[in-house]
Amino acid sequence: MSTEKNGSSNSTTISRRNFSTSEKSEIPREILLDFDPHFSTSKGLRLKSYKKMLMIDAAMPWFGMDIGGTLTKLVYFEPTDITPDEADMEVETLKNIRRYLTKNSAYGNTGRRDSHLQMNDVYIGGRKGILHFIRFPTSKMATFLDLAKSKGMATLASTVCATGGGAYKFENQFLQEVNLKLHKFDELDSTISGMEFIDAHNHCECFYWANPKDDSRCEKVPFDFSDPYPFMVVNVGSGVSMLVVTGPGKYRRVTGTSLGGGTFLGLCCLLTGCSSFEEAIQLAANGDNTCVDKLVKDIYGGDYEKFGLHGDLVASSFGQMNSKDRRASVTKEDLARATLVTITNNIGSIARMCAVNEEISRVVFIGNFLRVNTISMKLLSYAMDYWSSGSLKALFLEHEGYFGAVGCLLELMRNA
Predict the structure, then answer these.
(1) Does 187 qualify as catalytic in the annotation?
(2) Which residue in the list 78, 177, 187, 411 is annotated as catalytic?
(3) What would the pLDDT profile of 204-241 be if each residue is shown by its tens digit?
(4) If phi over 0 gives left and psi between -120 and 50 gives alpha, with beta otherwise, what is residue 390?
(5) Do 402 and 312 form a contact (C-beta atoms < 8 A)?
(6) Is the pLDDT of residue 322 over 80?
(7) Nearest-CA neighbor of 320 among 303, 304, 337, 343?
(8) Lesser CB count within 10 Å: N end or C end of the chain?
(9) What is the pTM of this model?
(10) Longest CA–CA separation in the chain, Å
(11) pLDDT 10s digits, 244-284
């Protein structure tokens, strides 16, 4: 293990892959997961002995950003181990930013902090603190930059680690408006890195839905993801990427589809006049897709027994809408539900075929498409189980769409 001093910035860089076996046996798991996320040990905590040795002197505040096509995700690390001396030296601007971010759950009309996802007692960069998870529509980036400028962000940090297409799209605006440079990190690298970190620090991160088609028996059940490899990740954002993960930090992209969360929201806005993802999901929750879709039983009068197709399965999405009478009677809620079912079924179908082809039994669905969207989670759970005769399991993670931003926060530590 080695450290290097940078004379110009007086910052400390930690070599994260040079721990000897004897050193690893002595360093706490929380610290090693921070600096060497692929290492695992059952050793007890000895944080105080190693905190100074592994401290990163990166300028606060510490953020990671994932600027997606529809939603921007921001992860903020709030240190809780501030010493009295540090508190005395801390500039007022930094204190004000911390108070503003942590004492509010809403920022303007569209920014939200998901307080139910907050993670306490997390060690990052040798510091102990709280991870806060914040989101806002990417279309409101100008509002975010105005807010950052008003809070004095540019006087505290010169670089922010960011991923997603927006890290390129808004790079010049960040520099011009708030004098912040965006250190761009690969989107898929950051997602996998963030997943591994969060799962290692949150023992109830992974879950599945049992009995997803039976409302009276359906329940959310924790899943032990401590020995996960290999598994497949289906990242559903504006579009969809599907990755096969074979070991810590080892993955490859196998396919994707342009029909994702952005497609669902765009079509719902077009068909129903809604203006937000939350509104679209609420409409879908009160709709009936069978008023819009053509089912197997609409064609065969019942089940198609030769191929084991149940009569209630969708045979043709929006297949009823060629009828003028049907179009006249359909509601906005029905259209929203049919749109959600169409997009979800397509994602599930592609994911199942990829999993079978790769001989993988665990499929992890992530991304903000699944936020407040139990309808899709249950549909995916049922589809994976039904079409594989029980050999495939659909898994979900509590921090669904924030992994890219977490990965960027870790990257900030690596580049401090």
Answers:
(1) yes
(2) 187
(3) 999 999 999 898 999 999 999 988 999 999 999 999 99
(4) left
(5) no
(6) yes
(7) 337
(8) N
(9) 0.83
(10) 78
(11) 999 988 999 999 999 999 999 999 999 999 999 999 999 99
Whether the per-residue pLDDT at 17 is higher than 70: the answer is no
Question: Hey, what are 207's tokens?
Answer: 């879950």
78, two tokens:
């709030």
CA 58 from centroid of its chain's CA atoms: 25
Residue 56: the pLDDT is 55
Q: In the 8-state DSSP scheme, what is residue 302?
A: S
Who's near 142: CB < 8 A, 6+ residues apart? 173
Torsion angles phi and psi, residue 267, rounded to 5: -65, -40
**Amino acid in the structure at residue 414:** R
> For residue 232, what are its two tokens?
């497949």
- DSSP secondary-structure letter at 288? -
β-sheet with 206-210: strand ranges across: 219-222, 206-210, 393-397, 362-366, 231-236, 240-247, 250-257
Tokens found for residue 73: 């995700």
CA 216 from centre of chain: 29
E-assigned strand segments in 223-344: 231-236, 240-247, 250-257, 294-295, 314-316
User: Of 25-34, 217-226, 309-318, which range is least confident?
Assistant: 25-34
Query: Can you give the pLDDT at residue 14?
Result: 32
Instruction: Report whether 247 contacts 352 (CB < 8 A).
Output: no
Rounded to 5 degrees, what are φ and ψ at 73?
-115, 135
Q: Which two tokens stand for residue 305?
A: 């027994």
Is the model's pLDDT at 19 over the cut of 70?
Answer: no
Whole-number pLDDT of residue 54: 44
Task: Render 112-157 in DSSP notation, one character per residue.
Answer: EE-GGG-EEEEEETTEEEEEEEEEEEGGGHHHHHHHHHHTTGGGT-
- Chain-centroid distance, C-alpha 264: 18
